[in-house]
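Input set for joint prediction.
Command: fold jointly, output tokens.
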Amino acid sequence: ALAAPAIAQEMPEITWRMTTSFPKSTEALHNTGIYLTNALAEATDGKFRIQHFAAGEIVGGLQAADAVMEGTVEAAHTVGYYYWGKDPAWAVGSAIPFSLNYRGMNAWNYAGGGVDLYNEFLAGHGLVGFPGGNTGVQMGGWYRKEINTVDDLKGLKFRVGGFAGYVLERLGVVPQQLAGGDIYPALEKGTLDAVEFTGPFDDEKLGFVKVAPYYYSPGFWEGAPTVHFFFSKEKFEALPKHYQAILRNCCRAADQEMLAIYDWNNPKALMRLVQEGAQLRTFSPEIMSAAFDAANEIYAEMAEKHEWFKKLWESITAFRSEHYTYTQLVDFQYDYYMMQLNGQKRL
Amino acid sequence: ALAAPAIAQEMPEITWRMTTSFPKSTEALHNTGIYLTNALAEATDGKFRIQHFAAGEIVGGLQAADAVMEGTVEAAHTVGYYYWGKDPAWAVGSAIPFSLNYRGMNAWNYAGGGVDLYNEFLAGHGLVGFPGGNTGVQMGGWYRKEINTVDDLKGLKFRVGGFAGYVLERLGVVPQQLAGGDIYPALEKGTLDAVEFTGPFDDEKLGFVKVAPYYYSPGFWEGAPTVHFFFSKEKFEALPKHYQAILRNCCRAADQEMLAIYDWNNPKALMRLVQEGAQLRTFSPEIMSAAFDAANEIYAEMAEKHEWFKKLWESITAFRSEHYTYTQLVDFQYDYYMMQLNGQKRL
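tokens >
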């Protein structure tokens, strides 16, 4: 009996709650949270459990990180850029316009010190954060009319997320905030001109193809958004070391899982959308270039005022050019040839 | 004292041995095995340990999987295509020419049933396998002279891996097997015309740039080689369920880690190689097209004779075209624009 108390400590029973930013309808986002909680329960023989709550069940989707900071719950599955209004540094760890693609973010996060640097920032907010999913490049949204020039953006009533909306506003876009259920009727009536969401696998459930058929790529404001698991730093550090390690590994498995689910399902969903009438378009170089310049202007302003924005963004941009140079010389050479074979119907 | 024996079972002490295919000099490959063993020890509070052995310490690098099948060790860190001589199906789970890129392999493995299907095949050999790393697109090797046409390949004495060599042989290449230390002098003397290895981060340590400066991309026979952890199926299944789960999660973290390390280090290494005199070249469309046709001829022959090759390759090719169509329409649009900005020195 002597050793029993120590042995019993090996796998203590712990239950946490995790609030998320995602409703059940965004299956890949929502289910990656479930993937984490299942993986954690399996790895600890059911001893360390995190209860999963969809957006709105405890707090609203955009308050997920706040709920952890305020001590309401121990964990959140959310996206850093939702909190950019507090400090734009929040957004850099997830995605800002013209940042890295998935391979770049993955390299920066895990081999380039990105996870650690973002955690230095998060520590100031009482949080620990680990990447918990990626969507790959998102689509640029659904439009009632074709958008060819920067002039076409002037006055465009566009339902678009916070940080991206702030950049697009400089090009004359009028960002709109509408609750989920109001979007479709607004698009139908024309009180809204366009809406962006994520990619085909999520977008097809929303039916926008019927009222705003022009479907643009790429979503240059989301080249590879990193979704995060945020935990209370105090609660995380109080865990036994091996529970910390198990949780970190489960987050990492979940991180990779989400991308796999999107990459497997997006192609099929896009083909179905085209059959339903989606008109695929790409943003013109003129629009992309103007958006790039506007983003850089804003980043320079933000870097002056926000130390952590500057630190994180400089860490990413120090790698960005060499990453795309290498991509072009090596990985792109393979993909480009495979795409050519595909165009020739040889695949 | 009543409950003690059951509690003591929670985290039993287990020690395994893992032999690998990689010498210490191929840092990213070798260290990903170490990453796994460290992650596993941390996650089990040191109770479940795997001892890591570099290539040659227990068995040779190309006998790693055999050592598990024969019961010499419990685990191997290796690449499936090393064993293609037993059955070409082994290679499909890792990489064969003109297969998927990383995003495609990741989607197929984890969301498209690839891991499960490959494990059905591996079960016949007494193994369980989980992806344990990826290099991304590899380079196509170092050449003493420029290679422009299929004629230039005729009689080319090329040190190249087994499966790829078998395909290139149809184009007139004469694949060579040379031990590591013999390659450099053979290239210098001209008894060898070319050598392929992995990518810049590994290649720069070998110094081939001095004797064979033409450095070709892409390595179309390795679009995204999946490295694997293979375990004895019997031993894996005898583990407590939560140890199985922990080990699976650790493999998955290691899988993502290797890619991050390559993607972070390859760009820097390539730039150093260029400064040392590497002449970057890309294979001509003529060579790529002839290799694609030769590969398809061989795949048709293999599919007739080898049921598992057919099953695995059909599973991949059913996804391949839609994957590249989607990549071209969405992710490529982002990367292409970023590469343009980079070319204009705006990044």
